[in-house]
Automatic annotation (TrEMBL):
Protein name per Swiss-Prot or TrEMBL: DUF389 domain-containing protein
Ranges annotated as spanning the membrane: 114-135, 141-162, 174-194, 214-237, 244-266, 272-296
Membrane as UniProt keyword: yes
Pfam families recorded: DUF389
Superkingdom field: Bacteria
InterPro entries to which the protein is assigned, alphabetical: DUF389
Record keywords: Membrane, Transmembrane, Transmembrane helix
Organism listed in the record: Nocardia callitridis
Keyword hit for Transmembrane: yes
Length: 322
């Protein structure tokens, strides 16, 4: 369940309470009039079934509470209450399938902003990838995959497409279009220094065997990217953050960027272009799969959408057979 906290102006409190009363997925409602200081107003708190959150937030927002008050939503890990079980049961759909759009928009907005931290992580990841290529070390390549922050903007771009949020999509695209070139330029400069020191040689790069998968583009490159993008978006909307680590390790976006830089500095343009192609395939595959996951999941916390309708039909058939 989710915990809803609303600071409502006094003139809209009764309307807000009416919204909560009409939803069967809401319970544990409390009201403290005149207790809020900044902004001033009444404090309303309740627990809400995840699958019904979108409709409630939409109605509360329509009252102007976001403008004159505040709405916060936080996950509740443990609830011991028969009332909460009843609320979850009476809400249509399954909580694991529900996409709380405001929650997802807030999360992806934070992950898609171009800032110093994002550039630092992406640059470090590219440098690690370059070292992994130079030393033919799969372990270092995996480290670069985990450090890379690029999935955040890719997921945000998919959310922007589905929600038709041009600002979010544009912000995400800028983060990627600026972040990767900056990281690759820094990696290029570092690679030139390493080559001057003799740490990287043409013979060494040509003899790599353990990390040559990075630039070998094939049908499974797209398949892996699609699967990773689907798993990554599912982990975001279902709050299964542990699954994101597996997503990071499975895609070769940052390693491909690092390999392209090293190959270019050594004049291996064929490998450089293949690595760039691998990067493009992975980026496109992740966005496509993440978008499809959002499109075909049950919409707005109810059971709209193809998968939601199928799940509702399947449950009705099973209940008839009992």
């Amino acid at each position: 369940m989710l915990h809803l906290r609303v600071i409502s102006p006094a003139e809209t409190t009764d309307q807000a309470m009416a919204v909560l009363a009409e939803d069967p997925g809401i319970t544990h409602v409390t009201l403290a009039r005149g207790i809020a200081v900044a902004p001033s107003g009444d404090l309303i708190q309740a627990d809400i079934a995840r699958e019904g959150a979108n409709d409630v937030l939409e109605h509360l927002t329509a009252l102007g509470i976001c403008r004159d008050g505040a709405i916060t939503l936080t996950p509740v890990e443990t609830v011991l209450s028969e009332a909460s079980k009843t609320a979850a049961k009476e809400s249509p759909g399954d909580p694991s399938d529900a996409v709380v759009w405001e929650e997802l928009l807030t999360q992806t907005h934070e992950e898609s902003t171009l800032n110093v931290t994002f550039l630092a992580f992406l640059t470090i990841a590219c440098l690690l990838a370059a070292v992994g290529v130079a030393t033919d070390s799969p372990v270092t390549i995996v480290g670069a995959m985990v450090v890379g922050p690029e999935f955040g903007p890719l997921a945000a771009f998919a959310v922007g497409l589905v929600r038709r949020d041009s600002r979010l999509a544009r912000r995400s695209a800028i983060a990627l279009l600026v972040g990767f070139p900056v990281a690759m330029v820094v990696t290029l400069l570092a690679t030139l220094v390493w080559e001057k020191l003799g740490w990287i040689t043409l013979a060494g790069v040509e003899s790599v065997r353990n990390v040559d998968f990075i630039y070998k583009v094939g049908p499974f490159s797209l398949v892996v990217a699609l699967l990773a993008g689907a798993a990554g978006m599912l982990s975001l909307v279902s709050e299964k953050s542990a699954a994101l680590v597996g997503v990071f390790i499975s895609v070769t976006t940052v390693p491909a960027a690092g390999f392209a830089v090293i190959a270019a500095t050594l004049g291996q343009w064929h490998i450089a272009f293949l690595s760039a192609g691998q990067l493009a395939v992975n980026l496109a595959g992740i966005v496509i799969a993440a978008t499809l996951v959002l499109v075909f999941r049950p919409g707005a916390g109810s059971e709209r959408g193809p998968i939601g309708r199928f799940a509702r039909w399947l449950r009705s058939r099973l209940s008839r057979n009992r």
